[in-house]
Design goal:
Blueprint lengths: L40 H31 L6 H32 L2 E2 L10 E5 L5 H4 L23 H9 L4 E5 L12 E3 L6 H11 L2 E5 L4 H13 L5 E5 L3 H26 L27 E5 L5 E5 L9 H9 L1 H7 L2
Parallel strand pairs: 1-4, 2-3, 2-5, 3-4, 5-6
Antiparallel strand pairs: 6-7, 7-8
Length: 343
């Protein structure tokens, strides 16, 4: 089997948890495009209405009982105060339930792109990531700290990690990702395309050429490594952004493997076509700073490249209090690309 990072940009069936070509057990080697998820726009709109209602009612209940609890500190019995806290908690649960229904509604309403040709001429961002990490991107922000007793869940945006990345990238263009074959519904966030198992590489290369910006989340898998090698081989540096969701040790191991793949690809290109290619380097992991994002699987570092492929890593930090913590953090981390590409 050819190596994943072959200079020709082609290889056999993908293995592991790579981005567009992660093995899913469905349609191995088949040229037939997998059936897209079955969405219901009517169900999505109904769920969105229910979600808004639950969040509004739950938020009002939580705030009402919280204020009653604060007032009762010197006016009520211990039992009444405990009941007020229970009411605050019940309101928060309704609010969280509404957020969960809202996410499901957006899954039904998310756009599925039938073919690459149907994308049109509007600018877009190509979002590449390991399929196996999708569950980490489907979570809501952790609850920020608030005043004692305050229902801090009300301060969260109800947007998933992927949705906040899409929101941060909105000034550059709409965000398009490849969908996981066989999934019942697309994730909320980037618009999805579903590709045949043996045709995904050609489509990814074509989308890389057309995209205003390619955002690639580092991770495990030969397919993801293939995407990384092809992106640094064919894209100008200002059109590539890498996002690191790993801790330092895992990133160091990944970078070592990537540099080796870069070197082997350059040697193969020289041997097969006589073309010389000087691979870029990946940066050292930034030193830890107070407030840096630390949750497992969360985006931690954004890497930009200068015109000469000099890497510039930016450590992501969480705001102290924010309803969309990740979006604000990503906007700071993505600022060089946003300033370059926004209309």
């Amino acid at each position: 089997m050819p190596r994943a990072a072959g200079g020709s940009g082609k290889r056999d069936q993908p293995e592991g948890g790579g981005g567009a070509g992660a093995d899913t057990g469905a349609g191995g080697g088949s040229s037939r495009t997998p059936a897209p998820p079955v969405q219901s726009k009517a169900r999505g709109r109904a769920l969105a209405t229910a979600a808004t209602t639950l969040q509004l009612v739950g938020g009002l209940i939580a705030v009402w009982f919280f204020l009653a609890w604060r007032w009762s500190a010197s006016h009520s019995s211990l039992l009444e105060r405990e009941l007020d806290l229970l009411g605050t908690g019940a309101g928060s649960l309704f609010f969280i339930w509404g957020q969960t229904l809202g996410r499901r509604a957006r899954q039904h309403l998310n756009e599925i792109i039938p073919t690459a040709e149907s994308i049109g001429d509007d600018p877009f961002v190509l979002y590449l990531r390991p399929f196996e990490d999708d569950s980490s991107r489907d979570r809501f922000d952790p609850t920020p700290r608030g005043a004692p007793g305050f229902p801090s869940d009300l301060l969260t945006s109800g947007l998933t990690g992927e949705e906040q990345l899409v929101a941060a990238l909105k000034p550059v263009g709409r965000v398009i990702a490849l969908g996981v074959p066989g999934q019942k519904l697309p994730q909320a966030g980037a618009r999805r395309m579903y590709l045949a198992h043996d045709a995904w590489q050609d489509t990814v290369l074509a989308l890389m050429e057309r995209a205003r910006l390619v955002v690639l989340v580092l991770g495990a898998g030969r397919s993801l490594m293939w995407e990384l090698v092809q992106s640094v081989r064919m894209l100008p540096p200002e059109r590539l952004v890498l996002i690191v969701p790993m801790e330092r040790a895992a990133y160091d191991a990944f970078a070592e493997t990537a540099v080796r793949e870069f070197r082997e690809t350059a040697e193969q290109m020289l041997r097969e076509s006589g073309r010389s290619w000087t691979p870029p380097t990946l940066p050292a992991y930034p030193p830890h700073e107070t407030g840096a994002v630390s949750e497992e699987g969360a985006f931690k570092v954004v890497v930009h490249f200068e015109a000469d492929w000099t890497p510039r890593p930016i450590l992501l930090k969480r705001p102290l209090v924010s309803g969309d913590q990740l979006k604000r953090s990503l906007k700071r981390g993505l600022r060089p690309a946003l300033e370059r590409w926004q209309d």
